[in-house]
């Protein structure tokens, strides 16, 4: 195992209240390829190397194993709880039982609080783990401001109770945010969204930055390990984009590292996933050295393909046949 990265080399991020946030985290969604023990081992190695943000979720099915590793790291004095930023998320089938879901995640993670607790999707539409892309739940329904706010108020109560230091949203759109942010007593500190060079979401990204909300980028290298249900023949792999391949050759690194450099220099907090030490170590180390030039950043910006990879079609409601209905691409909330 390599020695720990010099953490002073990492760029700084802050939430709107001044809370420091690591600039890059380790995702723990193993898709259908890696079991809980492999992911927990990656968390152990990553924290020992220098990772300080671990992105979890109950639906990933590995929080208990991750919690065992975190407890061991604390007990060994590798890291203090106050030095880690740990997140979790409430899954779609527990929107009416947020406190119970959060407490279960805390028990599994062996923590007294999470640093940020996310609303994983903005509607309670549910699918069984491991289902294929054609699966549909007949109880699924369109986005509802009232139902969303009922769930969000439960997240706000987690802050009141000290179970979560901050709360966040995920998989949102500008129309949905415009509808709910004025109603929030506690504003989201962070929002998770798909972000990679092939899908840069400039309007939503700028919207969050203007409001002091930290964008957390999932699929930051194009999610080559994403489930088969999220793959289509039209998908564009970020690491195979000509500009990314060219810059990787110029910097003598893997194309994935160009994606991560771009994301961090842009101002996002990417959360790449890997169970391989050489990969997760280089993912973190790359943002401390050999930055992209302004001209290279601009070349990547101009190469945006608007290619969403996580389309969410399994969450469609009866009568909605096109996954774009989930994402308000015409500026209106569909089905509301």
Can you describe this structure?
The chain is an alpha/beta fold and 336 residues long. The protein is globular and about 50 Å long. The strands form two sheets. An eight-stranded parallel sheet has the order 3-4-5-6-7-8-9-10. The model has no long low-confidence stretch (mean pLDDT 94). Helix content is 34%, strand content 12%. The protein contains ten helices and ten strands. The chain has a single domain, classed as NADP-dependent oxidoreductase domain (TIM Barrel), CATH 3.20.20.100. Helix 1 packs parallel to helix 2 (63-76) and helix 7 packs across helix 8 (255-266).
Task: Briefly say what this structure is.
It contains ten helices and ten strands. The protein is an alpha/beta fold and 336 residues long. Helix 1 (36-49) packs parallel to helix 2 (63-76) and helix 2 (63-76) packs across helix 3.
Q: How confident is the prediction overall: mean pLDDT?
A: 94
Helix content estimate? 25-40%
Reported CATH architecture: Alpha-Beta Barrel
The name of the CATH superfamily reads: NADP-dependent oxidoreductase domain
Uncertain parts = none
Outline the biggest β-sheet. 8 strands, parallel
Q: Which class of secondary structure composition applies to the elements? A: alpha/beta
N-end to C-end Cα span: 52 Å
CATH class: Alpha Beta
The percentage of residues in β strands lies in 5-15%
Gyration radius, to the nearest Å?
Answer: 19 Å
Number of domains: 1
Number of helices: 10
- Using DSSP, what is the number of strands? 10
Order of helices and strands: EEEHEHEHEHEHEHEHHEHH
- Approximate shape: globular
Q: Determine the CATH topology.
A: TIM Barrel
Within the largest sheet, what's the order of strands? 3-4-5-6-7-8-9-10
């Amino acid at each position: 195992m390599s020695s720990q990265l010099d953490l002073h080399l990492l760029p700084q991020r802050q939430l709107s209240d001044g809370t420091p946030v690591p600039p890059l985290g380790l995702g723990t969604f193993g898709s259908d390829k890696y079991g809980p023990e492999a992911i927990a081992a990656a968390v152990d190695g990553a924290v020992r190397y220098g990772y300080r943000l671990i992105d979890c979720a109950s639906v990933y099915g590995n929080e208990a194993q991750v919690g065992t590793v975190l407890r061991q790291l604390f007990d060994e004095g590798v890291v203090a709880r106050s030095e880690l930023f740990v997140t979790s998320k409430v899954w779609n089938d527990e929107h009416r039982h947020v406190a119970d879901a959060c407490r279960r995640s805390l028990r599994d993670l062996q923590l007294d609080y999470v640093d940020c607790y996310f609303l994983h999707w903005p509607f309670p539409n549910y699918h069984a783990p491991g289902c294929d892309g054609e699966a549909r739940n007949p109880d699924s329904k369109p986005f509802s401001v009232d139902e969303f706010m009922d769930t969000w108020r439960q997240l706000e109560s987690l802050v009141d109770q000290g179970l979560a230091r901050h709360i966040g949203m995920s998989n949102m759109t500008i129309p949905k945010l415009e509808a709910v942010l004025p109603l929030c007593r506690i504003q989201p500190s962070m929002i998770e969204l798909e972000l990679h060079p092939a899908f840069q979401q400039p309007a939503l990204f700028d919207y969050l930055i203007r409001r002091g909300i930290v964008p957390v980028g999932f699929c930051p290298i194009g999610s080559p390990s994403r489930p088969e249900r999220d793959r289509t023949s039209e998908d564009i792999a970020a690491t195979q984009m000509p500009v990314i391949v060219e810059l990787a050759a110029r910097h003598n690194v893997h194309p994935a590292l160009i994606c991560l450099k771009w994301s961090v220099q842009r101002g996002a907090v990417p959360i790449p996933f890997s169970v391989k030490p050489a990969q997760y170590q280089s993912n973190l180390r790359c943002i401390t050295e050999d930055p992209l030039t302004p001209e290279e950043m601009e070349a990547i910006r101009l190469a945006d393909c608007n290619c969403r990879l996580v389309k969410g079609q399994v969450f469609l409601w009866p009568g909605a046949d096109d996954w774009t209905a989930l994402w308000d691409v015409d500026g209106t909330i569909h089905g509301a």
